[in-house]
Amino acid sequence: xxxxxxxxxxxxxxxxxxxxxxxxxxxxxxxxxxxxxxxxxxxxxxxxxxxxxxxxxxxxxxxxxxxxxxxxxxxxxxxxxxxxxxxxxxxxxxxxxxxxxxxxxxxxxxxxxxxxxxxxxxxxxxxxxxxxxxxxxxxxxxxxxxxxxxxxxxxxxxxxxxxxxxxxxxxxxx
Length: 174
Prior knowledge:
alpha/beta; 5-stranded mixed sheet; about 50% helix
């Protein structure tokens, strides 16, 4: 690869449903890694993506700079309110990262793209279910919310909210 192509080559960012996919299928130069981090930040700020998937299945060699950059991209997206999954880490690269003491703390990893999509779909479905059971999300605010003739409907809303919160906590710990 010559110097001109190294500065212009980019990892494509692809929209799949409500996800943004960065599929790395080439050897990464340091410049490409820096550009990827910038491109992801810009794409997330301009889109309504609910999650970011970083597919590293095309990477043959992952040094500490690339590993830290991928971790940082995941953390950056989380700060921006976007779930992140890294998928496709080759077993030999995984062993090398462990031997180097490199961790991808705060970033979810999966075996492949299908697993990443399934994991994120499940998380977003749990989030939607939690929101739909939350009386506050349904408009029940305060003890008199929904009260028509004063027959205690406000208390029912408070009980429903307490039950929804207990269910959400049980799901988070279960």
